[in-house]
Amino acid sequence: MASVVVGVDAGATKTSAALASGKMIVRRAQGAGANATIAGIDAAAVVILRTIREACGDQTSETISAIHIGAAGAGSPDVARDLEAIVRVAFPSSNVRVGDDVEIALRAAIPQGPGIVIVAGTGSIALASDPEGNLHRAGGLGYLLGDEGSAGWIGFEALRLLGRVYDGRARAEETSRLVARHLGVANRSSLIRAVYHERIDVAKIAALAPSILAFAGKGNRASKTIVEAAAGQLAQLVIDVASAAHLTEARTNVALSGGLLREENLLTALLKSKIVSSLPNAAIVAGGDPVEGAVRLAERGCG
Q: What does the alpha-carbon distance between residue 143 and residue 152 come to, in Å, rounded to a whole number?
């Protein structure tokens, strides 16, 4: 009889779950966001369990061989352990594993073997699996410590540009005017107040990135400079994990994943060029559906 497994992609904005039998997905479900770092362990677990049960349909917990959850915030071992413990209580007969969401992104695009994924959305992180199956990470440190090249990073670079404009060190143009409108700030003091005296909404700042990408594609010099720098930062994350995983000279796949890299634009074109020039034997592949990566990892848990 084919094993029945569940894969879960628990992100900051939505949670997706898929029930699979014999490596075929037979039922899907979607719920709210479940980032344990933001919402807390208990609240995230409630959303994850609700979504899993919806995906399971008429299946009882005893029939589920394995569950793999890729969860935002579960890069922390403590978060992963606590989420695992809660899910195991609900599914005591299942092999339950919780990992971060970048590993499922890797296996969504590169089902097995060595490879690299670069994920860029609000934040950014790169992950490589070496030939022995060991995982190597770079980035993913959050907007204060890293997330280089991400939508959040691009947004903050645009805020810094506006600061230079208000200082008289840069000329006001389309990009800086966009930022001023987006934040509702008309001068230096209101910019400082919006950033330091009010709660920083990283998602709102990251929401500037699509417009900056569009401006860069049309030739806006300020936006193009930001996008070129972002591509360099993302490429460096790939190069760093490739070096750690001893894949610099190997024939290996590099997957582009995350909302910022989903469309063909100046950023993805520059990033691909920089990766290929630094890793001459690399092949660029498209990212897959992360929940399918979670299903593949759950299937491994049946062994």
A: 7
Note the pLDDT tens digit of each residue in 207-231: 999 999 999 999 999 999 999 999 9
Could you tell me which residues are beta bridge partners of residue 27?
19
pTM exceeds 0.85 for this model:
yes
Name the token pair of 16: 């997706």
CA–CA separation, 20 and 5 (whole Å): 5
- In the numeric block, the tokens 């490739």 are attached to 242
CB proximity list for 221: less than 8 A, separation 6 or greater = 173
Q: Is 133 helix (H, G, I), strand (E, B) or coil?
A: coil
- With beta carbons less than 8 A apart as the criterion, state whether 113 and 169 touch: no
How many residues in the chain?
303
Pairing verdict, β 66-71 and 24-32: unpaired
Contacts of 158 (CB under 8 A, 6+ apart): 175, 176, 178, 179, 208, 212, 223, 226
**What is the Cα–Cα distance from 32 to 16, expressed in whole angstroms?**
9
> How do residues 153-199 score in pLDDT, each as one tens digit?
999 999 999 999 999 999 999 999 999 999 999 999 999 998 888 77
